[in-house]
Amino acid sequence: MPVQKLTLYRRYFKHGTFGELKDAGGNTVAVTVECPWLNNQKGKSCIPEGMYQIQRHQSPSKGVCLAITAPTLGVTLYGPSQRTHCLTHVANRVSELQGCIAPGETFGVIGQEWGVLQSRNALEQLLGLVGEQSCTLEIRGQ
Question: What is the count of structural domains for the chain?
Answer without folding.
Answer: 1
